[in-house]
Design a protein that fits this description.
By secondary structure, the protein is an all-alpha fold. Helices cover 77% and strands 0% of the residues.
Amino acid sequence: MRKLLPFAVALLLIVAATTHNSLEAKDKDEFIELKAELIVLQKQVRNLQESSDKNTGQVSTLLTQVVDSVSLARRDISQTRETVDRSLSDINASANNSSQQLNQFVEKINATNTRLERLEQQVKKIEVIFNPTTVIKNCDEGEQQYKQAYGDYIRGNYALAIEQFRNYVTCFAGTEAGGQAQYLIADAFYKQLEFQKAVPELNKLINEYPNNRQVATARYKKADCLLKTDKRKEAEEELRLLIQTYPTSPEAKQGEQVLASLPPEKVEPPPVKKPTPATRPRRN
């Protein structure tokens, strides 16, 4: 706008000069009107320039305010981000501490459970000492004898249960209940992880009570005992016999899974014979 002002003034001066030179041809009144219009035009140009300067100042001030606001917003965002980062770090640290505390708490619970189990076993032993169960050896009280033995079996008094079940098997050998008692004898050893003692008791059930409903379970547990005593070949034979004899039983399906999960046996290479050194003839 400032660049246009000198150009407009010069143009008006030229018009005025031209008009002055032609006063003779034109009326003086027209010159006066033209001069007045020139003065009005100068005022308008001056007002327009002042307005332009004022607007430019307002725009500059507004731009400065916008720049300041953007700077403040950036600073606030940066501070907020730092605060969020610190909060996340604190949360992660708190989560790690909570995880460690939880693991320690679980370990304490497991240790407590172990001590409680040991204490329970000690209490059972003390009960047996101070409240000994009278072993019924009279074959006339077979039902009570079986119930008493089974109660000790359920409570974990396996030694006493085995003794009473043996007496029951002696009195009622060959019966269905006698076979069940024989199975519980073997299972009592199995539950105590006495696998070598459990195997002959399981064999007794399998051989003497072949029609008993526990035979399939007995074969599976026998194979498990053999595996746990490093007798893999015998265990595999027992499992195959179980699958062949009782193909539709749940124990047969479990036996198939066990056979499939066994790792391949390592074939050891034959020992390498060292060559014997050739004997040299002795010199006389």
